[in-house]
Design brief:
alpha+beta; Rhopdopsin 7-helix transmembrane proteins; Heat Shock Protein 90; 5-stranded mixed sheet; two-stranded antiparallel ribbon; 7 strands; rod-shaped
C-alpha cells in the first residue's frame, strides 16, 4: 500500500493538491489577490513533482530528468512569495521581506540552472548539486521560521506549523539520498510517503489559513461599509445643520424688520406685543435648533407663533386654518425645525399682501398610504402672477428659505420619494397658490 506510488493514498493526495490548485487559482481570478496566485503555483509545482513516477515510458522519464529538481525550486520560490504576502512581511518585518524576495529569485535561477546542468553533465551532477543546496535550504527555512514567529497573530503560528511539518517530513524522504533506501522499502514504505503526507498536512493548514483570511477580508469589508454608512449619516447631518443655521438668521432678520416698522410708525403698544410674542418664538426656536428634527406637533406649535407675528404685520391680518387628519400621530413624525415656515412666509408676502379683502391660508396635513402630505393653500394673487409682477423682487428675496427647506427634507429622507410641488390654482373666479409637500411616513 505504502510502497506503490499508484496506490489510493498517493492518488488521493495528488488529486487533492490538483483540486486545491484549481480552487485557489479561480479565487485569484475573482479577486486578483496574489496571495492565492502564489499559493496555487506552489500547489501546481508540487503536483507536477509528484506525478514524475507515474509512467514507465522512456520519453516521460527523460522529461522529468530536466524537470525533477526545477519544479521543486519553482515550488519553493512560489512558497517564499506566498509567505511574504500572507504574513505581510513588507509592513511587519521589512528585512525578512527583502530576504524572502531574494530567496525566491535565487530559487528561480536554480530552476533555470538545473536543466542546463542536465544537458551538459547529466542527472548525476544535478543530484550532487541538489545534495548541497537541499540541506542549506532546510537550514534557511528553519532560521526564517524563527524570525517570522515574531509577527503576531494565529495566522503566523499556523503558517509556521504547516511549514515545519512539511520541512521535517520532506527531509525524512530526502534522507534516502544519504542512507540506504532499502531501510524504508524493507518496512513496506516508499520514502516519498513522508513528502506526500507533509504536503497534505501543509496544504490543509494553509487552506484553513486562507479561509480565515477570506473571512477577515469579508468582515473588514462589512466594517468598512458600516463606517461608511455612519460617515454618510454624519455628512447628511452636517448638511442639514448648515442649512438650518442659515435658515434661522434669515427668519430672524425678517422679524426684526417688523419690529423696526412698528417703532417707525410709533405704534408702541403693537411693538411691545410683537416683542413679547417674538421673544416666545425665539425661545422655542433656540430650543429646537439643537436638534436636527423635532416632532411634527412641535413644528406646528412654532409655526402657530410665527403666524401670529405675521398676522400683526399684515394690514387687516389674515385667517390661518389648520386641518389635520385625525389618524395621524403628530408626536411620532419627525421633521426638520421650521421646515414649513418659508412656504407660509411666501404665501403671506408674495401672495396675500397683493390682494384686498379677505386673506386666508389653509394648512392641511393628511396621510396617503405610506406618505404624509402637507398642503399650504392661500388665496393670494397666485405664483404665476406674482412672478410676472415682481420677478426681480422675488428672485432677490425667496426663495432661499424654501430651497433650503427642500434640501433639508430631502436629506432627512435620503431623497427617497420626497415631492415638493408649487401649483398656481388661479382661475377666472379666484386666485391662489398651493404648495404640496409629500414625504414618507417614517417613524424616526
Amino acid at each position: 500500500m505504502f510502497l506503490d506510488l499508484h496506490s489510493e493514498i498517493y492518488s488521493w493526495i495528488r488529486g487533492g493538491l490538483l483540486i486545491l490548485f484549481l480552487y485557489h487559482l479561480l479565487i485569484y481570478f475573482q479577486n486578483l489577490r496574489k496571495t492565492y496566485l502564489y499559493y496555487s503555483l506552489f500547489l501546481f509545482f508540487l503536483f507536477i513533482y509528484f506525478i514524475r513516477d507515474l509512467s514507465e515510458a522512456e520519453s516521460y522519464k527523460n522529461i522529468f530528468l530536466y524537470l525533477n529538481f526545477s519544479v521543486q525550486f519553482l515550488a519553493y520560490a512560489a512558497f517564499a512569495m506566498f509567505a511574504r504576502l500572507l504574513l505581510e512581511t513588507k509592513d511587519k518585518l521589512i528585512l525578512w521581506d527583502k530576504i524572502l524576495d531574494f530567496e525566491a529569485k535565487i530559487l528561480v535561477a536554480f530552476a533555470i540552472l538545473f536543466p542546463i546542468v542536465q544537458f551538459f553533465g547529466g542527472y548525476e551532477y544535478q543530484t550532487k548539486l541538489f545534495l548541497i543546496i537541499g540541506p542549506a535550504l532546510t537550514i534557511f527555512t528553519i532560521i526564517a521560521m524563527f524570525y517570522l514567529y515574531k509577527i503576531p497573530g494565529l495566522t503566523t503560528k499556523f503558517f509556521i506549523l504547516g511549514t515545519l511539518l512539511y520541512t521535517v517530513l520532506a527531509n525524512v524522504s530526502f534522507s534516502a539520498y544519504f542512507i540506504d533506501s532499502n531501510m524504508f522499502l524493507n518496512n513496506g514504505i516508499n520514502p516519498m510517503l513522508f513528502t506526500y503526507v507533509g504536503a497534505f498536512l501543509q496544504s490543509i493548514i494553509y487552506a484553513t489559513i486562507l479561509g480565515q483570511s477570506v473571512k477577515k477580508i469579508e468582515q473588514k469589508s462589512k466594517n468598512a461599509e458600516i463606517k461608511l454608512a455612519f460617515k454618510y449619516k454624519e455628512l447628511e447631518e452636517l448638511k442639514m445643520t448648515a442649512l438650518q443655521s442659515q435658515m434661522n438668521p434669515h427668519f430672524l432678520f425678517n422679524s426684526l424688520n417688523s419690529i423696526n416698522n412698528f417703532i417707525l410708525k410709533s405704534d408702541i403698544e403693537k411693538a411691545s406685543d410683537y416683542i413679547t410674542k417674538f421673544s416666545r418664538l425665539i425661545r422655542v426656536i433656540l430650543k429646537s435648533s439643537s436638534s436636527l428634527t423635532v416632532p411634527f406637533s412641535e413644528e406646528l406649535g412654532i409655526l402657530s407663533l410665527y403666524v401670529k407675528l405675521e398676522q400683526m404685520r399684515i394690514n387687516g391680518g389674515f385667517e390661518y386654518v389648520v386641518n389635520i387628519d385625525k389618524d395621524i400621530n403628530l408626536e411620532e413624525i419627525k421633521v426638520p425645525p421650521l421646515f414649513l415656515q418659508p412656504f407660509i412666509e411666501n404665501s403671506i408676502w408674495h401672495g396675500l399682501t397683493h390682494v384686498e379683502g379677505e386673506k386666508r391660508i389653509n394648512l392641511i396635513v393628511s396621510q396617503e398610504e405610506d406618505f404624509i402630505v402637507c398642503e399650504i393653500i392661500d388665496n393670494g394673487i397666485g405664483i404665476n402672477r406674482a412672478r410676472e409682477e415682481s420677478h426681480k423682487k422675488i428672485n432677490r428675496r425667496k426663495f432661499f428659505g424654501t430651497k433650503a427647506t427642500e434640501n433639508r427634507i430631502r436629506l432627512l429622507y435620503k431623497k427617497a420619494n420626497v415631492k415638493i410641488n408649487v401649483i398656481d390654482i388661479s382661475d377666472k373666479d379666484s386666485t391662489g397658490t398651493k404648495v404640496q409637500i409629500k414625504f414618507p411616513h417614517i417613524v424616526k
